[in-house]
Records
---
Amino acid sequence: MHILANRKGLQHGQKTGPITINYGFMKALFNIELSYDSGESFSITKNSSETEGRYRKLHHLVRADFYAAMLLQAVCHATTYDINNVNYASLYDALCMWYEDPISFYEFVISLKKFEQLGLITLVNRKENGRFDIQLRILEEDTYFIVSSPVVFTKGFTDLSLSHWKLFFAALLQTGTGKEKVLFRQFDNEQHDNMMHKGLKQFLHKHQASDVKRLIEELITIPVYNEKPLFIRPKEQLTYKYEGRKLSVAYFSVHPSWILSHKKGQKYHFPIQPVVKFSRFAWFIQHELEQLGLTEHFTNNIPLVNELISTLKPKGKVLSRHVLHKIREYIREQHVLPTSLTAFIQNVSRSRMKATIENLARTEGVHQWIAPHMNGEVKEQRTEAFVSRMSYFATPTLRKLFKKGYTYLQRYYTRLALYTSNDYKHVQEFDHMPMMKEIRKTAARKKVCPAAYAALEKEALEMWEANPDWERWQVTNELGKWLLDQLEHLPSQDTMAVLPPGVQLEDILLSFS
């Protein structure tokens, strides 16, 4: 075990130990590239073309994929290969604990979503707290594991190229545990359904054998950690075999420093433990329960008390008092506690929090990323999901997250505005008005801020409903004329919000928590 220059070492003075990597999972990871030439892509930024570089090849391994794969195997449970009660933020925080030079949050999330799409992992959402469980795909016939040195978490290792990584991990998996072995690999061999066992040229997607030879030589000569390289030359034979002038076979070994034996009693898996420490808040809840006469309903039921505290803690004291009053009202009417305490708390909180969260998001400028380019019921559902996730945080915390997120979103998740009239369809009651189509086209042409225009239509609806003579308003188009006049006073917005498919605003905001 070593003290590395990662967060474990620098902030906590902890050593970083070895982990076990599962052959079946790594085989499935490498076999992504069996369809390397399929051309299948997935978009990471909405409304973009492939020429803009905003598409990624689904069946191409990238550096972030190995970061994610190592992290998942480090924090999963040893026998079940699952990871429980996490979110993207807690997983990324763990990644930063392990790696000396971590990738960005965005790269990490994209790899996880790619793994999910390809079936390497399964995500199951927990409705009660907005987190999820992960199950790694482990095939029964490939359940054996190899001990991996913590060298893979060092900057010396991550500074190497992707091809270096692939060659090292394949060699480590071929070597196994505890004993140095001379490996031989053919340069050319296309006839294999296991990507790791193909010829080195095919495995590394190199056209020239000389390029593969250069990679092997670099792995033999470049010191990675403690002045030691990843590979060594065989002691009793040449490194390369030729057929005529053509490179045929390479012989090499993993450096003995990186070949570890499995030791009984040593820990190789480090599951993420949700931290629940609410001492002062727990006293507050106990006091409120006593004041409301609810203590008897929670006495001698520690799991229920913990559920109450952990669910209410992120909501703050003001909303918690409101929820406890609602619980008392429910007990008085039904004479029992709600069947699902967490679900009851969320339902009570949601209606009150929805207005607060949306107004705060609008004030801090992040509202446009909640449901970009969505309308009607789809937009409402997306907004409800956003509010549900963010309702776990107190208002001051939300304000900080929104402020931090806005700068980041403005930089990475906007593009020049290209609005259509559909971006301005908000009040369905106005769809039949003769002038409305032209009004919305005008708003799109002027690049009026969609959020400001939405508020304007809602104001117009209130005016319309308050007027007793609906027919006169409709026929004379007074309301339409008023809307056109108000357009001149609304702010414009030259950029528009964009988010990659599958990435939600709350995922990005939670990375700042």
---
Amino acid sequence: MSKPIHLLRRGQCRFAVTPHSAPSHLFCAEPVEHEKSSYCAHHAEICFDRRSAEQRRADAERAAIAREAMRKPKDATYGPLLLSRLGIDTVSEDAA
């Protein structure tokens, strides 16, 4: 549904979806999040990240740990520190 800027209407997302150097510079054009927004909900979230710097760092750390865990062999076991950093409860099955 992407469109060049001159074809966008009121209420359509103005987030650029092609590089500025592209022969045809296109914009999202999905319905905007609300009347006073220039962006759809998805692009507003990208543009206006409301998380604190601490939360962004924590999220980035969890994502990096998860990516690393995905590269491990399927039969690998993960220690409690890794699991707690991923937010996974480490209660053993014996205690349950």
---
Amino acid sequence: MSRRSPAHTLPLSIFNLNHIDTCLFLNYHTIKHVMYLLQDCTTQAEPGSHERSKGDVMDVARRTPGNEEGDILAQARQPFPSIENMASYRRESARINEVPSRLLKERIVFVPPFINDEIANYLIGVLLYLESDDASKEISLYINCHGSLDGNLYYGLGIYDTMRYLKPEITTVCLGAAQGVAAVLLAAGTKGKRFILPHSQVVLHQPLSSVKGQASDIEIRAHELLRQRQSLYEILAEHTGKSVDQVMQDADRRRYMTAKEAVEYGLVDEVITREELAQ
């Protein structure tokens, strides 16, 4: 019985030969193995028929779109990339790695898709650094976040408390989603400087948790979740002008809001449109 290649579990786009120039950093034998996997993935064959000759593998490369001259294999035979290619690659990598530094220089902080203890510590550190750098300049917090990874509110509330502690004004912008504790961070921006893009959404919901263990441990965790929920509702009520009971009722089940609804609810102050940015 023939042995199946691991490539059967991978999407075919991984082996798109239009992008095979990245294989300049591989040796010739690795290229042959990639060609073998490609042939094995794209051919409907009987068991055992994927054991092809070297000539078959080379033929796949010669039939690659945009490779009429067979230059891919010629490049792949080079044991190391050329100095010119390596220098270009390093320049490109340097530009990509400069992005976070450039944003930080402009006092822009991105909240990532999920918040855990490491992310919270990083964001808190960045906010404190920006305040120490210049306490008179505002900070922009860009949010596209689905909340806490494990449902624990402490990570997000640590960021929230830091925002409230800082002297600089904080502009918050939702671009994508602000769910759970991320909605709290969005609402915690300086009044009048809380914005949302037209197709973004805000979601209110209760704290989430998956609890295992003996009954007494589950009971303790349940009481803690209820306490966290009360804190969450009180914070949202403070920043939206709603009553705690109203927030509790709205967040009892997931409450999805469009950008316009988030403005009406008081979570943000304005929907940013392209026309407004152009003014």
---
Amino acid sequence: MSRVLRRVLIVEDDRALSAALARLALIWCDDVTSVDGVEAARRALANAPPELLLVDLRLPDGSGFDVVEAACATRPLPVIVAMSGQATPEDSFRLAHMGVRGWVTKPFTTEAITRAVETARTQAPPLASIGAWCVGVAPMREVHRVLRWSMVDQAIALSAGNRSRAAQLLHVSRQAMQQVLRARDGAARTRIRSTVR
């Protein structure tokens, strides 16, 4: 895999493994951040959301599940690959429902983690899981609106701001994408006006 990512975040408390993953990630991009716990990961996610998150499930100050949950709140949503030597089938199921697209069991080879990252980057996120989370929580119309806006934001981020390329990623016309952006901007202005009053 060549330099196709802008930013990678590694959350791993084993220093030797973290350093090895950072060296590998430098092949994919120039901006690699390594942290060793949940709180440091939350700060890194808030400061500079990554395109790729490699996260260990067992961390000294909590669980990798907490990191995944924090990552799922960032925009654009990163591709997440989880790593663990002690995960259960229930852990794997829960991670898949949280949107984790890749998985490697420790110990792993460079080829195994590279393959997991490449596979995760080419898979679509689990839309059925996202939709299932919303039942009873949000009206369907709101879910549609937020999903449209999130997809456009993600496509623009993945295409480095190029709206024509973003429209291609979404398989829509540039005009259709612009219409979604105008609707979102109009809704944001309406919210601001109602807050100011």
